[in-house]
Structure formats: structure tokens, C-alpha cells
Amino acid sequence: MKLLLSYLFIIYNTHYLNKIYSPAMPNILLVEDDKIIAEGLKFSLENSGFNTKWCTMGYDALDHLNDQKVDLVLLDIGLPDINGFDVLRNIRKTSNIPVIIVTAMNDDTEIVLGIEGLGADDYVTKPFNNRVLIARIRAQLRHVQGQDLKSLQNTKKLKQVFEINKDLHQILLLGEVVGLTRAECKILMYMIEHPNRIHSKGHLLNVMHDRPTGAGENTIVSHIQHIRAALNKIDPNNEYIDNLRGLGYSLTL
User: Which residue ranges of the chain lie beneath pLDDT 50?
Assistant: First the structure.
């Protein structure tokens, strides 16, 4: 009996240490103020092999993102201190990390705002099945791994043809300054820093203004046309920005 208990103790501790120290374990940031939902989800995530940090406040989540490596965010909208959409807006200013909105809201307008307007990657409404949510998390992480490889290869190519000077609000293509307005420069800078990713018109509007505005999506269409013309003037042999009908725009080489 003692031998069996010792054996089980060794297995348990080996499993526990592997979970803690395994470098392959993705880091999930759970932003949820409902204690019952959060504790149950955190338990499921950790048992599925995810390191999980739980924050009840939006500002705490943003601080954690600044200080720690996070692979994916599960984000509630109705937070006590700051609206979840504002959290997402702040995340998208600096990061393309996958964000899955997890909320009791099921209004179509809210879903469109989260996914198209602010750049969320998925949307799950409460109540939800933890196993289904975890499957969606794994799908997002697999997608990111594939995109990371493409982005790494593409970024190396982009650095050979584009140069960004944020202080002067200038972009150089093949050593020549691209003639752009400040708004157009912000859009192109963002697309260069986030290649091989589809950017909706609504998301690019937010990039341009740093917040939602009443401006229509035709504004982005006009800016993209000007950007393309400016790039084509310097390098007429390449089309850098792809128009994916109904989805948005992507910068590729």
C-alpha cells in the first residue's frame, strides 16, 4: 500500500511540475469579473494544459499584458472599471494577440463591433460549453503559429523594401519617401507592422483615429487608393496591398 501511494505521489508531482515548467504551455489571460464563471473556466483551462492568469479588472489586464508574455486573451465586456471594448481597443494599438470575447451580450451590433470594428478574433456568448471554448482557443493558437512563420518570413522581406521613421511620420519604399498624408502613413505603418493579416475597413478606421468615429468606411477606401498609387509611383512592378472583397485589406510581398 505504501509503495502504491509513493508511486501515485511521484506521478502526481511529475504531472504538476510539467504543467508549471513546460515551455510549450500557452499563456492565457482570462479577464472576467464573475467569480463563479472565472474559477470554473480557469480550472478547465489549467487542466487542459494552459497557464492561466485571471484578472477581474480591465486595467489590471492591460498592465499584465505590458509585463508578461500572453498567447491569447479571453475577454469579458461588462467589467467593473473599464468597458471590455476599450480593453480590446487598447490591446489592438500595440498587439495582434488573439482575443476571444466571452460575454453575456448576444446583440449582433455588439458582435460586429467586436470582430470587425475592433479586431477581435472570435466571440462566445454565455452560457457556453468549456470544452467548445477550449477547442476554439486551440484553433486560434494553431492559426497564430502558422501566421507567425509567414509573418517572420514576410517581415524579413518587408525590411528589405520598407523603412519606417515614426518620428518624421515617413515611410520609405526602396529608399524613396512615399508621399502620404499623416492618416495614410498611420494606416500603412500598421499594415507593414502586421503583414499577412486581413484588416477590416472598420479596424483600419480605428487605427487611423485611435478610437471609433462617425467616419464612413469609404474614407478607408479612398486612403487605400492613395496609398496604392503612391507605392505604385515608386515601384510599378509590385502590388503590395491586396483587396479581399468583403473582408478588408492585407499587405503582402
Answer: 2-23
In a domain, 140, yes or no: no
| Nearest Cα residue to 206 out of 195, 217, 192, 221 | 217
Q: Are residues 28 and 64 in the same domain?
A: yes
Length of the chain: 253
> Is 142 domain-assigned?
no
Q: Using CA atoms, how far apart are residues 181 and 199, in angstroms rounded to an integer?
A: 20
Total domains, the chain: 2
- Residue 89 sits in a domain whose CATH number is 3.40.50.2300
pTM recorded for the entire structure: 0.55
Dist. CA 124–CA 133, nearest whole Å: 8
Q: Which burial class, exposed, middle or buried, applies to 45 when counting CB atoms under 10 A from its CB (0-12, 13-18, 19+)?
A: buried
End residue of a domain, out of 93, 128, 163: 128
Classify residue 227 as exposed, middle or buried by CB count within 10 Å of its CB (0-12, 13-18, 19+).
buried
CB 242 within 8 A of CB 227: no
Whole-number pLDDT of residue 22: 43
